[in-house]
């Protein structure tokens, strides 16, 4: 069952880790350093919780959605449409989570992190068009 007519995908667990680790580390590190310089302890705490985690979750979910887009050959030709839908979906999920968990004070941090995580991943990750490669 492993042998398919499709070429190997650009999506794997290793590539998920390559995308996920920087998605957590860099936003958390950038916000922590600026909070340290400004001596804002609340931002230091938020850097590795609400900022880093929301970016990480957004990246993982965006990766899975893009993977499914490639498997089902959805938005292969118009990648910007798929990217825009994923970004809007992640922002909507971030807003929903801030409302459900009553994190209105962290809404800006979460929405910004979710936006950056989804945007960077959808720009970097390519979706193969299997229909063009078969012909």
Give structural notes.
Helix 1 runs antiparallel to helix 2 (41-72), helix 2 packs across helix 3 and helix 3 (79-100) runs antiparallel to helix 4 (107-124). It contains five helices and no strands. With 135 residues, the chain is mainly α. The model has no long low-confidence stretch (mean pLDDT 88). The longest helix is centred in the middle third of the chain and has 32 residues, at 41-72. It has helices at 13-38, 41-72, 79-100, 107-124, 130-134.
What would a concise description of this structure say?
With 135 residues, this protein is mainly alpha-helical. The protein is 76% helix and 0% strand.
Structural class: mainly alpha
Low-confidence stretches: none
Task: Say how many strands there are.
Answer: 0
Number of discrete helical segments: 5
Backbone shape:
elongated
Mean pLDDT: 88
User: H/E order of the elements?
Assistant: HHHHH
End-to-end C-alpha gap? 23 Å
Question: How much is the radius of gyration in Å?
Answer: 17 Å
Could you describe the largest sheet, including whether it forms a barrel? Answer: none
- Strand fraction: under 5%
What are the key terms here?
mainly alpha, 5 helices, 135 residues, elongated, single chain
Topology overview:
Elements: H1 13-38, H2 41-72, H3 79-100, H4 107-124, H5 130-134
